Amino acid sequence: MDAMFRLLHRPQEITDKPDAKPLAVGGGEIKFDNVIFAYDPERIVLKGISFTVPAGKTVAVVGPSGAGKSTISRILYRFYDISSGRVTIDGQDIRDVTQASLRGVIGIVPQDTVLFNDTVRYNIGYGRIGAADAEIETAARLAQIDKFIALLPQGYEAMVGERGLKLSGGEKQRVAIARTILKNPPILLLDEPTSALDTGTEREIQGALNEVSRNRTALVIAHRLSTVIDADEILVLDHGRIIERGRHSDLLALGGHYAAMWSKQREAAAAREKLREVENDPDVAPGVAKAEPV
How far is CA 150 from the centre of its chain? Predict the structure, then answer.
């Protein structure tokens, strides 16, 4: 038996309780209550974090690499169970409900979108199997990818290639956003959705992300602070602890870790923009050494 089939027959690490019930979602409030988590006993990743994402609001989690940001999203989707504390949605502990019902109410826009070697229509429609063509096309319009699709010789029937190789990074992210719009979940999880994109494409994608987040409970995991300035609350995570929290303007006024991160990213963005201007300047002679990007 090859490796794939051996994997299919491995026992599940996370299983439903015998009496697990479907998750009943009203507003979709998310609450982490004194959550402690470790991938192994020697490495505690989250050290008693507590926060609430109120129904219909957006909360962002930011911080350096290794701070534990993505671990929060994996716990919410229940890829792992926590060591202690509680994670609830509308007051229901996610360990007490079925995994299928939990994942059915959460829409994810990840950093790396998985696309199938099939048509644009199929890849968007994967968000809700059986959706009508008109619904798929409406989702594409809201994700701001419909104009691009209209320019393709085969339109929605165009093949995207293996892992979407015929699409740019921004186009693949718009397909992921369209999928999520089609799924129409009450809870949205944005897991560093623009970190692999250049600054210009990120700005374009942000409008579509704002559209899909409207009137939904949204948890945003982000590295680029420019994507979270409109969040209702921003949590700054470092070494598994929340060290600052507040709105963008409040955190800048605080002059702490967030303000330092913001300043550093702004300087880096300005340096990249200056580099692009130099590279595109026709008066710069070929072969002239150019500054390295920050």
Answer: 27
**What 3-state DSSP class applies to 172?**
helix
Q: What is the C-alpha to C-alpha distance for residues 207 and 127, in angstroms, rounded to an integer?
A: 20
> Left, alpha or beta for 92 (phi > 0: left; psi -120 to 50: alpha)?
beta
DSSP letter, residue 192 = S
Report the C-alpha gap between 284 and 282 in whole angstroms: 5
Phi, then psi, of 245 in degrees rounded to 5: -155, 145
Cα–Cα dist 198/194, whole Å: 8
List per-block mean pLDDT (blocks of 10 residues) for the chain, which spans 294 residues: 55 86 95 95 92 96 89 94 96 97 93 89 94 95 90 93 85 90 92 76 78 88 89 95 97 96 87 72 56 43
Measured CA to CA, the distance from residue 154 to residue 161 in angstroms comes to 14
Cross-sheet strand order for the sheet of 106-109: 106-109, 187-191, 217-222, 58-62, 233-238, 241-246
- Token pair of 52 as six digits: 């609430």
> Within 10 Å of residue 90's Cβ, how many Cβ atoms?
18
Q: Which H, E and C letters describe 200-256, residue by residue?
A: HHHHHHHHHHHHHHCCCEEEEEECCHHHCCCCCEEEEEECCEEEEEECHHHHHHHCC
pTM over cut 0.90:
no
